[in-house]
Model the fold of this input.
Amino acid sequence: NKPEWYLTQVLMWIGNHSKFLDDKIQPILDKAGSSVNAGLEFSRALVMLILEKLAADIPCLLYDDTLFCHLVDEVLLFERELYSVHGYLSSFPSCMHILSEESCFQRWLTVEKKFALQKMDSMLSSEAAWISQYKDISDVDEMKVPDCAETFMTLLLVITDRYKNLPTASRKLQFLALQKELVDDFRIRLTQVMKEETRASLGFRYCAILNAVNYIATVLADWADNV
Done:
């Protein structure tokens, strides 16, 4: 239940050994005419240990939503630091290959949808759902976006950020299909609320729904260039 222990340990080993590998080992490899990068090879070997550990652990966690989600979150944080701080190469083996394996991936999709729907329930039942966070700052709030619409688009953005480093386009497309499903679900929820407000079509909430739809359509159009 604490994957961060071994993930953090590996990041510490990579960081603590980098100077030694660069200053002592790399010159020997260079002198021998080798094209091997000592630091990257050290990182690759440690990541292989993590892949073995994940392959053994994941089957035990598949049906515990809390533990499985925690594992995915920690793996994504680990991957981010591995690439951004330690210069790991995308051509090397990575944890995303393990998360892409069929049984694990389908579970990931299932829990991602489950928690997204729970988030949508809470955002629409919130007292602030139809109020703009920036209602008192006119130059920021030209579109008068209700809180629920902004929170929903942030949810979609976070999901994209979580799956964008998957190694294959087919897996990314499955996540995109989930996002499209969530957009349609949100549309249905807005329609249901709107039907309750038809008698007051100039009322506060009815206008907020129209603003939400306009905002979501505008943001999705902006995202159209994002392959």
Observations:
- The CA atoms of residues 41 and 88 lie 10 Å apart.
- Residues 1-100 form one domain.
